[in-house]
Amino acid sequence: MSGQGELPESERRAPSSVVALAAGGTGGHLFPAQALAEVLVARGHRCVLFSEERAKKYVQDMPGVELVVAPASTITPRQPWKAPGQIWRIWRGIRTARREMRAREVACAVGFGGYPSLPPLLAAHFEKKPIMTHDAGVAIGLANRLLARFATRMFVSFPRVTGLAPRYLEKTVHTGNPVRSAVRALAGAPYQPPQKADEPFRLLIVGGSQGAHFFAEVMPAMLKELPRALLKRLLLTMQCREEDMAATDKALGALPLAGLTLQPFFSDLPQRMARAHLVICRAGASTVAELMVIGRPAILIPYPYLADDEQGQNAEAFARAGAGWVLRQERATPERLAALVTELAYKPEMLEAAHAAALAQGRPDAAERMADVVESVLRTKCPEGLVPPPSAANRHGPS
């Protein structure tokens, strides 16, 4: 935590202000924004979220947060013929965000990545308001790299990040990735893997929104490779896309599982994660953060088609800490997966060690850490560059 976060409680509170949050419309961007909003609203501030249409389904879980949809566009340097239209949409988004920020007297802005975050943060900068950024993963995203020169603070989720120019390292503060209150409530939930070969083994498989069809194809085949004795004590919970549901249900129904829960969506996913002995999932930044806060061992299969191998970098950091295992998608054959799951099911000491390592990396107070720094900026209300830099112990450079 930076020096500002170490102030006494009475000195940390800033006057009630309106804080703009800017994020892409996916859970990976919006969940950290939601977590920060929960803390800021509880401290008496107002939050307005600038995002895209997809964010509407998330805002209902953000009490006290107003949504403003502003025009935005991706930036595709390799397709220069698209640049005029992209620049026009970004400029429209800046104009819209400036107007909405003035109307609400926004005091500062915090961005959580994704192309919809770029126009609002540029708008706040043009309005001479302090801006801050947050990256959920190891790799600094494109929008935040573009904004680095204007940012007062750059919050990072991992001790070492990639893609950030050395001259901006003074601005970074390692807070961790904020998780929602539903996850924070389960921080460090008791964990006891089965010690005997006949005890139930709870396996959670979550494919995520990207590349989920791969899971629907590979996981039933993996389960068929497991020893029959393990299948008979396996309590399986699996998330599956609607379009894959019938085929997956048929394949799993033919196995002698001790129990099966198959659904396209789990509204109580943190609770199911806390009940699992082992999780198999992608390596999105929010997923990895939740695994670490709750403290659950996982086999991570990163989605391979993202820029800068974002999920791969997250997964490797998780595995280096001893919290789990990485299988790249091209190597995640049913046979390899089955061999690893079988080994872990019969070696509780491996699971216990990974559980402890995950917990050691978790930052359940990440949202509070961020809110402390935001409030320090609100108190000083100084322009870019005048907030004292984080303490040396909290600077983190590229790996």
The assigned structural class equals alpha/beta
What is the H level of CATH, i.e. the homologous superfamily of the largest domain? Glycogen Phosphorylase B
Helix fraction bin: 40-55%
Overall number of domains: 2
Q: What fraction of the residues are assigned to beta strands by DSSP?
A: 15-25%
Question: Could you please describe the fold and organization of this structure?
Answer:
The protein is α/β, with parallel strands linked by helices. It has 2 domains: 3-179 and 364-394, 3-Layer(aba) Sandwich (Rossmann fold), CATH 3.40.50; 201-361, Rossmann fold. 41% of the residues lie in helices and 15% in strands. The protein has helices at residues 9-12, 27-42, 56-59, 83-104, 118-126, 142-147, 181-184, 212-224, 228-231, 242-253, 269-275, 285-294, 310-320, 334-345, 348-361, 366-380; strands at residues 18-22, 46-51, 65-69, 106-111, 131-135, 153-156, 172-174, 201-206, 234-239, 259-263, 278-281, 298-300, 324-326. A 7-stranded parallel sheet has the order 3-2-1-4-5-6-7, sandwiched between helices. The chain has a 6-stranded parallel sheet with strand order 10-9-8-11-12-13, sandwiched between helices. Helix 2 (27-42) links the parallel strand 1 and strand 2. Helix 2 (27-42) crosses helix 16 (366-380) and helix 12 (285-294) crosses helix 15. It is elongated and about 65 Å long. 49% of the residues are buried.
Quick description:
The chain has 399 residues and is an alpha/beta fold. The protein has helices at 9-12, 27-42, 56-59, 83-104, 118-126, 142-147, 181-184, 212-224, 228-231, 242-253, 269-275, 285-294, 310-320, 334-345, 348-361, 366-380; strands spanning 18-22, 46-51, 65-69, 106-111, 131-135, 153-156, 172-174, 201-206, 234-239, 259-263, 278-281, 298-300, 324-326.
